[in-house]
Amino acid sequence: DAMVIQNPRYQVTQFGKPVTLSCSQTLNHNVMYWYQQKSSQAPKLLFHYYDKDFNNEADTPDNFQSRRPNTSFCFLDIRSPGLGDAAMYLCATSRDPLAGGEQYFGPGTRLTVT
Amino acid sequence: AQSVTQLGSHVSVSEGALVLLRCNYSSSVPPYLFWYVQYPNQGLQLLLKYTTGATLVKGINGFEAEFKKSETSFHLTKPSAHMSDAAEYFCADSKVAGGFKTIFGAGTRLFVKA
């Protein structure tokens, strides 16, 4: 089945220690998104790639970076995690947004910062 | 500014009772509306969507929603709740003036009592 895969599902890192979360998709979608979701809140968009075109949200901290080496993979790098970065990180994909905008989500990576 | 409002952060129903989750949108352009469901420690899953055409849309797991332009609403209903429906539900609009960006509501947690 075509899907969005996130690894790892659970990640524990130390305060200030860089961490990378990965996402892969078999849907061949143009757009890949990274969201941060804290407990009992809606997902908050960090950034997205439309093909190779990177689009950062204005309020995304510089501590968060992303890479998309090819259509299938996208990475979220947190350069110096703080306690406030503990959250669920969701990757999602969509076809060309002009086609309707529905997104396909991965299962998420729950990040703990100690 | 464009927004999606979900009335009621928590809704509790008895098993077998009607489920009604409320969503109102505010937009200067015709919206593309979605309902997503999120189970604990999982990503979001699309329940149903409205873009154009028939205003009553049916989704998975027996859910449906009706787009009412005059009321700027897109409420989600299910005639008979099941214990497995207990989850977080997000209403979203993916069409903004000048492009596409998904605006999520704050979410409604549905509790189902035996």
The count of β-strands of chain B is 11
- C-alpha termini separation of chain A: 36 Å
Radius of gyration of chain A (CA) equals 13 Å
Helix percent band of chain A: under 10%
Order of helices and strands of chain A: EEEEEEEEEEE
What is the overall shape of chain A? globular
The N- and C-terminal alpha carbons of chain B lie at a distance of 41 Å
Helix tally of chain B? 0
User: What kind of sheet is the major sheet of chain A?
Assistant: 7 strands, mixed
Oligomer classification? heterodimer
Low-confidence stretches of chain A: none
Question: In terms of structural class, how would the helical and strand content of chain B be classed?
Answer: mainly beta
Tell me, briefly, the overall form of chain B. Answer: globular
Structural class from helices and strands of chain A?
mainly beta
**Average pLDDT reading of chain B:** 93
Series of secondary-structure elements of chain B, N-terminal to C-terminal: EEEEEEEEEEE
Instruction: Determine the strand fraction of chain A and express it as a percent band.
Output: over 45%
Flag low-confidence runs of chain B: none
Give the biggest sheet of chain B. 6 strands, mixed
Name the beta content range of chain B.
over 45%
**In angstroms, what is the radius of gyration of chain B?**
14 Å
